[in-house]
Specification:
Blueprint lengths: L2 H12 L4 H8 L3 H10 L10 E7 L6 E4 L11 H12 L10 H4 L3
Antiparallel strand pairs: 1-2
Helix pairs in contact: 2-3
């Protein structure tokens, strides 16, 4: 699936559409839609989720789903979180500081 299709799936689930309906709209197998939604915790009734278009993954810039009464997400997946922190350790973020003490203010 493309990045755009993934975003459309999230938006459609947020609006209350079912797996079959989304699959038919995007011409993607229903099982693929179900798997994607379950991995993103969009399974079951998606009415209680909130979609915040201002919140994006720090690593890949995908829009994030925020659940009410929970700590806001910063990354879309563990893979992105690990990649981000790996780059921080190597000094590729935070202004290019190569020293851990410089990165974390120590």
């Amino acid at each position: 699936m493309t990045k755009k299709q993934k975003e459309h799936i999230v938006i459609m689930r947020m609006s209350g559409m079912g797996y079959k309906q989304i699959a038919k709209t995007l011409d993607v197998p229903t099982s693929t839609i179900k798997s994607f939604c379950k991995l993103r915790r969009l399974g079951g009734n998606a009415e209680y989720l909130t979609y915040d278009s201002k919140t994006f993954c720090k690593m890949c810039d995908l829009s994030l789903l925020q659940r009410p009464k929970q700590k806001p997400k910063t990354f879309c997946s563990d893979r992105c979180r690990w990649a981000w922190h790996g780059k921080c350790k190597r000094g590729e973020y935070h202004g290019g500081a190569g020293n851990k003490a410089e990165i974390h203010g120590g």
